[in-house]
Design a protein that fits this description.
eight-stranded parallel barrel, 11 helices, disordered C terminus, alpha/beta
């Protein structure tokens, strides 16, 4: 179960990131390194340190560029031994990313629609679809590109699972325990509901790293996940 929980190290200090990892101990073995940590807390080298310590690392960098740049960037991340890496779910970017990851154990994830976006935001961005429709399109394109999985809200996880099949990963951010502050998330859900909907991995940051006792917060989330665990082939 611990392998399905990914804790987001959304901090700008390497010392704080390492403190969180130490506090969580053996209860968590999978960490996400996003923009804040990557650029502000020496996240690339932190990731390599975590990998050397036997932890799994998810570099959430949302790559999008010309094909060659994406391919070479993904290949560089693959060399670290990281488990997951995000790219924006544009067909050419996903195909280039998969090419860069060939021969490695890196799972490339296509980011469908951010969980901080709703139908109005998607419309404002110029798409003639609602959020769910855009997620469905990008999930299908991710499957066709041959990448390892997608990032999607748990609100669309059940639909996405029917599109991508049983083996692709569905990583869901925007996870909030019942009664928690939603912050900037517009399509958040609870850990149990996300797993029941078909998610394979849950990303949790603020409810754990901002808690007075991060280890207790992580254990509570793991307990809720255990109660609603689903099998993903």
């Amino acid at each position: 179960m611990a392998g399905q929980l990914i804790v987001g190290l959304d901090v700008s200090s390497r010392a704080r990131a390492e403190e969180i990892v130490s506090l969580l101990g053996d209860s968590v073995d999978f960490y996400k390194i996003g923009y804040q940590c990557f650029y502000g807390a020496d996240g690339f080298n932190l990731g390599k340190t975590l990998l050397a310590a036997g932890k799994k690392v998810f570099f959430d960098l949302k790559l999008l560029d010309i094909d060659n740049t994406v391919e070479k960037g993904v290949a560089a991340i693959a060399e670290t031994g990281a488990t997951m890496l995000t790219v924006h779910a544009y067909p050419k970017a996903m195909r280039a990313a998969q090419k860069g990851a060939e021969g490695s154990g890196l799972c490339v994830l296509g980011v469908t629609v951010l969980t901080s976006m709703d139908d109005v935001d998607v419309k404002d961005a110029g798409y003639a679809r609602d959020a769910a429709g855009l997620v469905a399109l990008r999930a299908q394109q991710a499957r066709e590109a041959g990448i390892g999985g997608v990032v999607a809200s748990a609100h669309e996880a059940e639909m996405v699972r029917t599109i991508v099949g049983k083996t692709m990963a569905i990583v869901t951010p925007g996870i909030r325990p019942a009664g928690a502050d939603l912050g900037d998330q517009k399509r958040a859900t609870t850990p149990g509901d996300a797993l029941s909907a078909g998610a394979s991995h849950l990303v949790v940051a603020r409810p754990i790293i901002a808690a007075p006792d991060p280890a207790a917060a992580a254990k509570a989330i793991l307990a809720e996940m255990e109660g609603k665990r689903v099998s993903v082939a």
